[in-house]
Amino acid sequence: MLPNITPMQPPSTRKEFEERINLVLELLHTGKMHPRGMEGMLNIKFLPNGRIDMLSIDESTRLSANTMHMMHTTDMGEKLRELESESEG
Fold first, then answer.
1. DSSP letter at 55?
2. DSSP H or E stretch at residue 1
3. SS3 label, residue 83
4. What's the CA gap between 37 and 74, in Å, rounded?
5. CA-to-CA distance for 10 and 72, rounded, in angstroms?
6. Cα(84)–Cα(62) distance, rounded to whole angstroms?
7. Which 8-state DSSP code applies to residue 51?
8. pTM of the entire structure?
9. Tens-digit pLDDT profile for residues 17-53
10. Helix boundaries (H) for 1-89
């Protein structure tokens, strides 16, 4: 039986969206996420003030950012970490 999982909440502000994109960038830089299929991340442009140019974000990048945010901050992420620790032990 599948556990109850909180549904994915889309970002409601630009700040939340940029946090999600920056999370993916951090995971890629630290090697915790594989760059395969992340070609859209190479196309991200930054504005002169350091903010992300929202027009440079493609759909796959947006979906990856929302998914990674969900994996790290919701009960789904907690459940996945529990399953991982159980399989290691």
1. G
2. none
3. helix
4. 24
5. 14
6. 26
7. -
8. 0.73
9. 999 999 888 888 888 887 787 788 888 999 999 999 9
10. 14-30, 39-42, 59-73, 75-88
